[in-house]
Task: inverse folding
């Protein structure tokens, strides 16, 4: 272990910064993946609603 002041300061701060960056990266990845999953789910739901609307519209035209 370093004996001088600046060596001790760096030795103390660097692990904290590295774990902070790791923590930030992991949570950033989790939040981004959740956002992307919600976007995909919204697109799929919109497609299903459009299909359902087209199907009901076709049934109403065929029934007339």
Result:
């Amino acid at each position: 272990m370093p004996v001088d002041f600046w060596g001790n300061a760096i030795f103390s701060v660097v692990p904290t910064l590295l774990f902070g960056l790791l923590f930030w990266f992991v949570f950033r990845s989790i939040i981004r993946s959740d956002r992307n999953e919600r976007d995909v789910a919204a697109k799929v739901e919109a497609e299903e609603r459009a299909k359902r609307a087209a199907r009901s519209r076709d049934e109403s035209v065929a029934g007339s």
Summary: The chain has a mean pLDDT of 91. Residues 5-63 form the longest helix (59 residues). Helices lie at 5-63.
